[in-house]
Amino acid sequence: MDMKLNNPVLRSELKVKMRSFRTILGIILYVGILVFIASLYYSIASQNRGYGYGAINANRELGSTLYTLIAIFQFALIMVIAPAQTSGAISGERERQTLDLLLCTRMSAFEIIVGKLISSLAFILLLVVSSLPLFSLVFLFGGITPGDLITLFFFYIIIAMAVGSISIFFSTVFKRTMVATVVTYAVIFAWYVLTLIISIYLMSRHYMDPNASAQYVPKILYLNPMFGLGDIISRQLGADAQAGFRSFFGLRMGGSGQVPNISINPWIANVTLMFILTGIMITISSIRIRPVRIHRNMGRK
How far is 202 from 249, CA to CA, in rounded Å? Predict the structure, then answer.
């Protein structure tokens, strides 16, 4: 597997995307939405702030809540932007009738798919980095460390990579970008909602049994990125938030802050599964655009 940093597809896509006015406008709108949400919450919450010793705790709580609010909205924005950036990666080449020319180059199908995916993730990374000044304001209130921010951003990139790989897969399946985009959004929405609904159903079935164990998390819930995001944020906000989040899903923490009989953190399991999903989607997408089947058919004739 020869992964070259000078991938021609990657270089070309980056030049086109990063020099366009749409990229600048996208960053302005992206950061503008986050600033508007943060400013609106701060203006409302600051009216109820007190003074003295209680004000210190109030400021820390305000900072934690502001951090949570921005993190959730940024997660939602990434989930909306990532499919739009990648769902036309291959179908767009078909519409422009340039896919065959791309496949005739010395690049392998794998390199083409990876180049398309990384170029799209580069724009997502640019959006995430552009929100750093907004997140840095949370440090003024306390309660959040730079390490927490690095963990959150790492999670964003991994989830964006998984969503992008799914989008590219549907871009290889459908010839029209519009169809690929609609199907991608539908599948991602079903992925998030159905895994949550099935998990709630399985938990309700489990706790209806009077002899059921007090600790139960359906394995399918680890496939839901919202579960991983909730675990990260709850850990960063302290023991009370973590206990509330774990209790909601039927987990109980011991005195050391660890969950008995749970050997891996939910967000780590979620990230691991997203890595596996990304690898599977990239492999399948590479096979789908590989022109091997054409050669076999010509050989039979």
Answer: 11
